[in-house]
Design a protein that fits this description.
Number of strands: 0
Oligomer: single chain
Number of helices: 15
Distance between the termini: 41 Å
Strand content: under 5%
Length: 367
């Protein structure tokens, strides 16, 4: 608009210069000079008044427009406060966050099953190698069994592949023969479980691997590099290292939890989406935009902020909200997030991945 004003002034000055040059060129009389001077002066005065009035009207419109935006935003913020207060009384977002964590711990079991299935060949091979070590240990030490128990050992263990009763009720272990037999049965059961695609792997198998590790240490068997790698990887599924859960299962788990609560929080998510979209669509000034976001953020605690994020980033319903949030710094700038300004980043389930989504460095939702 200022450029347009300058254009009009430039045209007026050019016109004045042209008229003055023409009058001087044709040596106009004094009466003509006065006549044209009056006309030009009046025209410039009218033009100046028009430009000033137009600028005042523009400023008033901008002020009225900003005031209308302010009024609409704070009305939306008031509605948001009413909704969030009702949900806060029920600690709704705290419960949802806890439920997400619990279900992700269950998803770790599913991820463990996937890991074992993908590495089944190596795991079974290593278990069979370990089983053979126990078999060799029994063969090496069976000569120490007292003669009155040899027949029973042969009947049960050699012929029927069963535990010889005497080993468990007598006071001697025959150089850990009893423990070796137990370990063999444990390994055979684990192999059957792993090879049977119809049986779901549970976290109980982690305890079985831990029992085997304890036996390996007791028998002083040499561990292979592959075994150590597999064992360490399996133990990770005992932790809350949720990064082991693949992207598809992450979304499925979050979607499952939030869908159970959507009848209570769905309206809140829709209103929150509307507020963020309103700010993006109507506020161009970055300082004003950040102030609006600050007012909104001041009404949201950590659990609420994290649940808002997981709804946006990991559910289909929240995809539109994610697109709007990624146009803002609602979760903070990179420096804010690094300094835990608005929430504790250690409470994120997938810290590095989630921060990238917040900063719009990657889009985690499929189109």
């Amino acid at each position: 608009m200022k450029n347009k004003h300058f254009s009009w002034i430039a045209i007026a000055l050019a016109f004045v210069a042209l008229v003055s040059f023409s009058l001087a060129l044709f040596k106009a009389e004094e009466g003509w000079l006065g006549f044209w001077g009056g006309i030009i002066g009046s025209a410039i005065g009218v033009l100046g008044a028009f430009l000033v009035l137009n600028e005042q009207i523009k400023e008033e419109r901008e002020q009225n427009g900003q005031q209308q935006i302010d009024n609409t935003f704070f009305n939306l913020l008031s509605m948001h406060s009413e909704q969030i207060n009702n949900l806060k009384e029920k600690n709704k977002f705290g419960k949802i966050y806890s439920e997400l964590k619990t279900n992700l711990q269950s998803a770790m079991t599913t991820s463990l099953s996937i890991y074992i299935y993908n590495n089944k060949k190596d795991i079974v091979l290593e278990l069979n190698k370990l089983k053979q070590k126990y078999e060799d240990h029994i063969d090496k030490n069976k000569h120490k069994i007292p003669s009155n128990y040899v027949q029973e050992f042969t009947d049960y263990w050699i012929n029927q592949r069963k535990r010889p009763p005497f080993i468990w009720w007598t006071n001697f272990n025959m150089d850990n023969i009893a423990d070796a037999i137990d370990a063999i049965f444990l390994i055979e059961g684990m192999i059957d479980n792993i090879e049977d695609a119809n049986i779901t792997i549970t976290t109980n198998i982690i305890h079985k691997f831990e029992d085997l590790a304890s036996d390996i240490n007791k028998f002083k068997f040499e561990e292979t590099e592959i075994w150590n790698k597999l064992y360490d990887s399996i133990l990770e599924y005992k932790t809350n290292k949720f990064t082991l859960i693949d992207e598809g299962l992450r979304k499925e788990t979050v979607e499952s939890v939030l869908s159970c609560h959507y009848d209570e929080v769905g309206s809140y998510f829709r209103l929150f989406h509307r507020i963020i979209k309103y700010i993006n669509d109507n506020v161009e000034d970055l300082n004003i935009k950040n102030n609006y976001l600050g007012f909104l953020r001041a009404n949201v605690n950590q659990n609420e902020m994290l649940v808002i994020f997981y709804n946006a980033a990991y559910t289909k319903r929240g995809n539109g909200l994610l697109n709007e949030l990624q146009k803002t710094t609602f979760f903070g700038t990179e420096e804010d997030i690094e300094n835990n300004q608005h929430f504790d980043t250690n409470e994120l389930f997938w810290k590095n991945d989630d921060i990238e989504i917040m900063l719009n460095q990657v889009n985690n939702i499929d189109d």
